[in-house]
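Aggregate trends can hide what the representation actually does to any particular protein. The sequence in question and its structure tokens are set out directly beneath this paragraph.
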Amino acid sequence: MLIWSPNILSLSMDPEDAEQLAAEMQGESVNGWGLFQMAAGTGLAAYVVWAGILMPGFRRVPLKLQVPYIPANAKQVENVMLLLEGRTGKMVDLGSGDGRIVLEAYRRGFKPAIGYELNPWLLRLSSYRAWKAGCYGKVSYLREDLWKVNLSDCTNVTVFLAPSVLQLLERKLLTELPDEARVVAGRFPLPNWMPTHMTGHGLNRAWAYDIKAVRQAQQDSPEGSSV
């Protein structure tokens, strides 16, 4: 039996290592024994933790909507914040993972700053990080399915999600967000939208989309949009 303890945080994988491993695994099927061998051979014990603890949180979500947890690195967080510079108000992170983007948004003046995450272990990790930063109770991490959250009052939205779900997410964002909202996507761009701004390179790149501009572009398109 695994007992929760702050010591389990020592197993957290460095974001750069996680991205490299994810890239190597792309397109491959890894069973439980393969996962164990990989962890033993590379010393990445965090993947054992992910397989045994974090992955079960996905079971409440349909397979096509599942998104694996890979934490954002410091440069990715910085690029997201650059694209939100000068903005204020409510900020939400959809699939907030370990909570680092929400925490940084609060530090930069976004209130309220809220993360939506389905996995209870990641929520505990987020709360620990907030407590360690002296921000416990000042940021919110809610156990809710991002596909069911009402975004109609959100003006700043961040997403670090897999490409497989981004087209579905476009529909939800376009339906629910107000005109003044800005969406910032990290690692992967929204597939059908033209970004207002972008910054960074490679996996550190981030894209900003202003909802009013997206709607206007779709209205101006002679063929309309499939989103």
